[in-house]
Amino acid sequence: MPPATKQTPEERIAELEEQLSLSDQGVSKLAQRCLALEQQLAALEKHETYDNMSLFRLTLYYDYGLGFSQQDTLSAPVSAYSASNHTVSAIFEMPREVRAIRLDPGELPCYVAGIALSDQRLQAVPLSALSLDEDKSLFLSFDPQFLVECPMGLPAGTKLSVTYTYYPLQLGADDTVFYAMRQGIQLMQDRAAQASAAADAQRALAQNYGEQLAGQERRAAHLEEQLAAAIAEKEHFRVSYEAVLSSSCWKLTAPIRALFGRKK
């Protein structure tokens, strides 16, 4: 049985990048499947009558310099969420000047699309979410959150409206389909992260190898320059020596050298 051929760093990087691409495709397919199943579940009658609407209530946390806390919150009314078209629309009035805002669209894992703020200078950034599109976020864990930075601050009394489309992904403790999809997506994300880390490690290894090879090449070039200089110096002394031997002075003094040689 012939021995296995050892992969070069470039071949290993290409293989890992291909695995990463396949992992990304798997995550995308699972996410699409998750949304398709959620839309099917949305058509069920039990989706329209929730026992605990507080699980789907939008809560705004405001930071006025001391960080976010449970005491510094504003809650949207239950009527802000429409179960018929899955939209949320609420207006909050800032009780004091704030530096940052956190929006919590309920407590359950969810799919949020088209989130918009009345102040166009502000942007809601999802935290720990899977971005499916430019304005679509899939939260696979409980307590989903959006962070809104306010660099210029929002004065007290400022009214801020928040709108978005909202699909909670958990209907009951026995929703095994959701948990299976959640685990599958998480597994694909972990594999993609591992493949990316391995590819980065291979790139670093290849770069280190390239730097070592470049250093050896520079050392070899330096030694070749020293060798060429030594050869040139040797040739210079050879020419000088032959010139002395062929000179008339050397030939005229040959008897004297011979005499001194006999005396010794």
Question: How would you characterize the overall build of this protein?
Answer:
The chain has a domain of 129 residues. It is 45% helix and 25% strand. With 264 residues, the protein is an alpha+beta fold. A hairpin with a 4-residue loop joins strand 3 and strand 4.
Name the helicity range: 40-55%
Mean pLDDT: 79
| Strand residues, percent | 25-35%
Q: What about the largest sheet?
A: 6 strands, antiparallel
Number of helices: 4
Index terms:
single chain; alpha+beta; 11 strands
Quick take:
The chain is built from four helices and eleven strands, in the order αβββββββββββααα.
SSE blueprint:
Elements: H1 9-42, E1 58-63, E2 73-75, E3 81-82, E4 87-93, E5 98-105, E6 110-117, E7 124-127, E8 130-133, E9 136-139, E10 145-154, E11 159-168, H2 176-245, H3 248-252, H4 254-263
Antiparallel strand pairs: 1-2, 1-5, 3-4, 4-11, 5-10, 6-9, 6-11, 7-10, 8-9
Helix pairs in contact: 1-2
